[in-house]
Structures are given as C-alpha cells and as structure tokens.
Fold this protein.
Amino acid sequence: MIANLWNYRHLIKRLALSDFKLRYKNSVLGFFWSLLEPLLLLLVLYVVFAHLFPSVEENFHLFLLLGIVSWDFFTKGTSMGLNSIIGKPSLVRQVYIPREILVLSSSLTAFMMAALEFGVFAIFMAFSKVIPTSTIIYFPAIFLILFFLILGISLALGALNTYYRDVQYIWAVLLQAGFFASGVFFDINNLPENIRDILLLNPIARILIMLRQSVLYNIVPSTGDLVFCSITALAFLLIGYTIFTKLEPGFAEEV
Amino acid sequence: MNMIEVEHLWKNFRIPHEKRNTVFETLVGLFDTKKGYEEFTALKDINFSVKKGEWLGVIGPNGSGKSTLLKIIANTIRPTKGRVKVNGRITSFLELGVGFQPDLTAKENIYVYGAIMGFSDAEIKERMDAILDFAGLKRFKDTKLKNFSSGMVVRLAFSTAIQTEPEILLLDEVLAVGDMEFQQKCFAVFERYRQEDKTVVFVTHDMNSVKKFCDQALLLNHGEQVAFGDTEEVVEKYAIVSGESNYA
C-alpha cells in the first residue's frame, strides 16, 4: 500500500498544494483572515481566565495559544478528512486513483496550514522573549504523532461520511465536547484526580501536555505519554484503514 | 496478448425506495421489515476480450449499460459477479476535465489534471507550452478557469489529456462535446493512437466513427450482450435492434 502511495506522490503533492492555495484564496490576506478566529478565541479565553484565576500558568497566553493552535490542527484536519471523499466526486467517479490519496492529501493540507499557525505561535514566543530549550527536539515527534492520529480518524470519517451524511454533524458535536475535554485552555493536572484520569484517556489531552512541556516549560515528556499516544495513533490508523478499505468499493455509487 | 478480459460480468445496482443516507435513517430502517430497495441489473453476463492494439466500439441505446461497463473496466465501480482482468496502464476519458477547479488558473489546473493522469511536475513543465499551444489558450494561461467559456475548458482538458502515453484508453462520448474543428483534432489524435498500437475501448453513438476506427464492436441492450465481433455486422445488428424497438 505504501509503495502504491509512493507511485502517486506527484498527485498527492498537487492535490494537497492546490487545496492549500484554495483555502487561502490565493492571497496573503486570506491567511490573515484565517488567523482571526484563533486569535479572537485567544483574546477571550485570556481575558476570562487570567481574571478568574489569578494564579495561572507562567506565560499563560503562550500556554493558551499553543493549545488553540494544536487543537485547530486536529479540528481542521479531521473536518477536511471527513469531506475528502464527498468533496471530490469527479475524482471518485470518473477516474481510478487509490482513494486513500484523497484523505492523505487533505491531512497534508491541514499539516501545511498548521505549520503556518505554529509559525505565528513562534512569533508570539519571540515577542514574549521565551526561548525554547533543548526539549524542543521532542516537538517534531509529538507533532507527527498528532498528524497520524488525524490521518487515522480521517480515513474512518471520510469513508463513513460517504455512506452516512450525518456523520459530519455527529463529529461536529464530538469536536465541541473534545475542546473542553482536551485541556485547550486549562491544565488537566490541576483537576481532581478521578476526573483527570478519565480525561487522560483522551490522546489529544496528552499530546497538548507534551507539546507544552517540550516547547514552553523545558520538561522532557514522559515515556508513558509518548508510548500511550503513539499506540493510540497507530490503533486509529489501523482501524481507520480497515473501515476505509471495507467501504471503498462502493464509493463511486454513494458519493 | 489480451489487454482486457471480461468473463461472466454482472453488475447489480440497488435502487432504494427511500434513499437512506444517514445513520439515523439506517437505524430506523433496521426496525422496518420490508425490503427498502429494488435490485436493478445493469449488466448481465458480459463476455469479451480485447487484444493489444485493437479498438473495441461499445454501442447500444441509452441506458444499455455502456458507461457502467467502462467504469468497471476503469475500476471506479466494482462488479457484482464475474471477472475483469486488465493488463496495462489505463487512462480513462470518461469525462474531460476531471478535478478541474474553477478558482485555479489554467496553468495550475494543468498541473493538477496532469498529476491525475500520472505526470510528475517536471514532465508537465516540459509539455506545458505544447498543451497551451494545442488548446490555443496561451494568452489565458494565468486566467482563472471560472472565467473560461465551456468550450475553452474542454479544449484545455483535451490538450492535457492527449499528452498521456496510455497503454489502454477508455473513451466515453468525448466527441459529443466539441465543435467541428475540435472533432477534427480528436480524429487526428485517434489516427496517431492507431499507429502507436494503443488499445482502445470506445463508447459512442456515432456509427461512422465506430466503422472508421474499431476492429470489433460490442452491442448492448438493456444490460445484455446482444452481439460481439466484426464491426460491420454488429453495427448492422444495432440498426435492426433499434428498428424493432422503434416500431414495436
């Protein structure tokens, strides 16, 4: 399967790039418009929480922004994956290409968009005079785990949504819940132990903890967290791919 | 060598009484005991083979299963029963301009369409001038596709498509979309493909081009294989079949 994808690398690159361009309407301003929403969210959450809890984290604005940007990657990636099959009906009906290409290229588009937003985060860091330490070397690995998690979930969602169009509404609600359950705007470790342990079953919560540790707080992420998240990402990839291959033969008739 | 082998091919489609397209409807449907769909047989026991360098014309009235057959050979839909074996790289022109995005420029769309056809960026770059020249659209290379007329879009798609070096080519009514000049260009390309020994499966209603290009023909009617073999004989049979249905 991976050899097959390699044969289609030109197409994957083209699809990912052209969707990326279309997202920002071919303009630099398009990118700035796309930043408005996360920045507004940052402002609101910062104002509310910095006043409610005076003893917040060190560099709370960076803590928040890193959470928002990472969560945004997950939301955008899975939502684009969800629409990757039904959004390109002519590529499904009229020519044969391995359909996992459509999902993979949508995840790559999300990857590029996330890279830009992390760039903005880096600028915020520089302005706040926070210099990353050697623990930043864990960042690419954690980012990659998040990417594979998104890809696995997208494979399942993209296939299911082709057959059942209300999957997208169900997923939108789950994402809403996930925003509160992943510790985007608070530190899960401050919660009562029983609630914390439940929330830590959510791989995104652990990924956010690890990203903050490695980028902001000079802490080496725990092996337990790294292993847990790698295994969940791999499991989602396997489950997602199984669902995808099972449903794929009927795509052209359902799309 | 047989490039395409089709043995005992059947294809059924489900025609739902009420289309269940959501999880909710499917759950409700579980408690609904009556069958929610009808089976429609689009292809019944089709058998044929195409050798290397041969042109096969697929003819028949509307709704006889021609396009379904082409899509199964192209592997976009899968047979219900039977076997389809393809030996070689397929390029399908079931529709021109697959994957075209109105908000991208002509040039960008050529890159995407070329990648779908299996080209790398470097290969498309090499051919870019030839494609734009052939389409007569050099001046508009940086114009967004949404500002093109439909004729220009078709010309752009066709010029890109013919750059491919397919082993097997599937053509579905591509001639129907263009004007006279465009059809002449198509015929010139077809002549080239004939000389280059390409294997082609060709769906059309134009009996003259079937007679002109095809070595064999396959006549379908209501999903059944009525005749397969020598082009002249099959085309004649089609005249009789359609004559009957006209006067029945």
In short: The mean pLDDT of chain A is 93. Residues 8-254 of chain A form one domain. The CA atoms of residues 149 and 182 of chain A lie 14 Å apart.
